[in-house]
C-alpha cells in the first residue's frame, strides 16, 4: 500500500548506502507544474518524488546526476522559463534548487520533507470507511479511525493511521486533535446521530472542528436535523454539518467512488 510517507522512508533508507541530490522547487511565477517546496531526490539508479514531470524534470535529473558524478561541480539554483525551449507551454517561471545530501542529513531531511499533515477523524470501519482510509494514506493526512467494533480494522496499517475502539463510539470525539476534519459513517444510524451530536457539542464548546461530514442522503439529513433541533442545537450550529458528503455531481455509490468524492471535498477546503 503506497503512502505519502513512503518516498521519504525510501530516501532515508537509501542514504545509508549512497549519496543523493535533492531537487526542490523554489520561487515560482505564473503557471508551473508544481508548487514551491515540492521535491524529488535523485540517486544514480533511482528517482524518488517528482517536481512535475516533463522536460523540466528530465533536465533536473540529468543535472543532479552530473552533481553526483562531479563533487567539485557547484550545486547552484537554476531558473527555467517554461516555454518552447523546454517543450512545456505552461508559460510560468520556476526556480530549482539543488543540494547534495548524505546519511548525516537523514534526521533533518525527515523533518524538512514531511508535508504539513491535516488531521482527519473517521468514524466507521465499513467498506466506504476502508476505501477512504486507503485513499487518504496517499495524502499528507494523520488519520484517527474509530469504531465501536474492535475487530473491524485491517491489520498492517502504517503509523499514519491510529485505530481506536470506542464503546460508546461517541466518547472518542472529546479526544480528537484540535482542527480535525470529521467524517461520520458508522454501521448504525443511531451511532451516527450520537457521534454527530457529540461533535456539535464539542464545536459549541471549543469551535475546533472545522469540518463535520455525515454520509447519507438528504432525507437522512432532514430526519437528523429535526432530531438534533429537539436536542437543543440551533440552525447555525446545524449548518456547520455537511450532508451528503462528497463533491456534488459524482453519482456512483461504489466505495471507491465515494472515497474519491469525499477526499476531493476535503482537498477543496
Separation of the first and last Cα atoms: 26 Å
Q: Helical element count? A: 8
Strand order of the largest sheet: 8-7-6-9-10-11
Strand content: 15-25%
CATH topology of the largest domain: Rossmann fold
Mean pLDDT: 94
The radius of gyration is 23 Å
Structural class: alpha/beta
Explain the overall architecture:
The structure is a single chain. Helix 1 (6-15) packs antiparallel against helix 3 and helix 4 crosses helix 8. Helix 5 (189-206) links the parallel strand 9 (181-184) and strand 10. A 6-stranded parallel beta sheet has the order 8-7-6-9-10-11, with helices on both faces. Strands 3-2-1-5-4 form a 5-stranded antiparallel beta sheet. It folds into 2 domains: 6-113, no CATH class; 118-268, NAD(P)-binding Rossmann-like Domain (Rossmann fold), CATH 3.40.50.720. Helix content is 35%, strand content 22%. The protein is an alpha/beta fold and 269 residues long. It is built from 8 helices and 11 strands.
Task: Summarize the helices and strands and which ones pair or pack.
Layout: H1 6-15, E1 20-29, E2 39-42, E3 47-49, H2 54-69, E4 78-81, E5 93-101, H3 106-113, E6 118-123, H4 127-136, E7 141-147, E8 161-165, E9 181-184, H5 189-206, E10 211-214, H6 218-230, H7 235-238, E11 241-242, H8 255-268
Parallel strand pairs: 6-7, 6-9, 7-8, 9-10, 10-11
Antiparallel strand pairs: 1-2, 1-5, 2-3, 4-5
Amino acid at each position: 500500500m503506497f503512502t505519502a510517507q513512503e518516498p521519504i522512508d525510501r530516501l532515508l533508507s537509501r542514504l545509508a548506502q549512497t549519496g543523493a541530490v535533492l531537487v526542490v522547487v523554489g520561487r515560482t511565477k505564473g503557471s508551473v507544474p508544481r508548487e514551491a517546496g515540492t521535491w524529488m531526490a535523485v540517486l544514480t539508479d533511482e528517482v524518488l518524488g517528482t517536481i512535475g514531470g516533463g522536460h523540466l524534470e528530465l533536465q533536473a535529473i540529468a543535472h543532479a546526476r552530473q552533481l553526483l558524478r562531479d563533487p567539485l561541480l557547484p550545486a547552484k539554483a537554476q531558473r527555467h522559463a517554461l516555454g518552447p525551449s523546454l517543450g512545456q507551454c505552461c508559460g510560468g517561471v520556476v526556480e530549482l534548487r539543488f543540494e547534495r545530501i548524505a546519511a548525516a542529513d537523514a534526521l533533518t531531511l525527515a523533518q524538512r520533507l514531511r508535508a504539513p499533515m491535516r488531521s482527519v477523524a473517521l468514524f466507521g470501519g465499513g467498506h466506504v470507511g476502508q476505501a477512504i482510509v486507503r485513499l487518504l494514506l496517499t495524502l499528507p493526512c494523520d488519520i484517527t479511525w474509530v469504531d465501536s467494533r474492535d475487530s473491524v480494522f485491517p491489520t498492517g496499517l502504517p503509523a499514519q493511521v491510529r485505530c481506536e475502539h470506542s464503546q460508546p463510539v461517541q466518547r472518542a470525539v472529546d479526544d480528537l486533535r484540535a482542527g480535525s476534519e470529521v467524517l461520520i459513517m458508522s454501521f448504525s444510524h443511531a451511532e451516527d446521530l450520537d457521534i454527530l451530536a457529540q461533535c456539535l457539542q464539542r464545536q459549541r464548546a471549543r469551535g475546533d472542528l472545522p469540518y463535520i461530514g455525515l454520509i447519507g442522503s438528504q432525507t437522512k439529513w432532514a430526519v437528523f436535523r429535526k432530531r438534533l433541533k429537539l436536542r437543543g442545537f440551533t440552525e447555525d450550529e446545524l449548518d456547520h454539518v455537511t450532508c451528503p458528503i462528497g463533491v456534488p455531481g459524482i453519482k456512483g455509490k461504489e466505495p471507491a467512488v465515494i472515497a474519491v468524492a469525499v477526499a476531493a471535498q476535503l482537498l477543496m477546503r
